[in-house]
Amino acid sequence: MTMSKMPQRTARAEQLTVFLPADVTAPARARHEVRSALLRFGLTERQFDDVLLATSELVTNAFEHGERPQRLELSYAGGLLKMRVHDTGSRLPELRAPSPAEARSRGLVLVQALSEDWGFERCPGGKFVWAVFRIPGA
Are 112 and 129 in contact (CB under 8 A)? Predict the structure, then answer.
């Protein structure tokens, strides 16, 4: 009887936690860390432009509408990527139709358009705003 010497692959969740600075550099830091992690997870750059844009929007919203972003959590398994941004604010996100006269306030509309799903959850010390993306493995 022969046994295969081929390595066995198991479905393993890839994860990242980034503690964010309390200043306007938070979105750029988050994008850099998410990009680096997705490359480590074996994804190609053409697969995650939407994720990087959503990263900017979620972190910027936490900075502008929460009390401050604290951390970003990322997990990837089975072709699904989940991103969660924690901030210390109690005010819940609100999806609003932007006015043509407003230059801003399109962040969550973009996240909704780019992701499979998005939402928020209260937690001790604030809330998480999250988005889920379908990204098949490379």
Answer: no
Strand-pair partners of 53: none
Buried/exposed 1-33: b ≥16 CB within 10 Å, e otherwise: eeeeeeeeeeeeeeebebebeeeeebbebbbeb
| H or E element that contains 119 | strand 117-123
Q: Which residue has the tokens 């993306």?
A: 133
Contacting residues for 14 by C-beta, under 8 A, at least 6 apart: 37, 40, 41, 75, 76, 77
Q: What is the pLDDT along the chain (138 residues), one digit of tens a residue?
A: 444 443 333 345 799 999 999 888 999 999 999 999 999 998 988 888 999 999 999 999 898 887 888 999 999 999 999 999 999 998 888 777 766 655 556 689 999 999 999 999 999 999 999 999 998 865
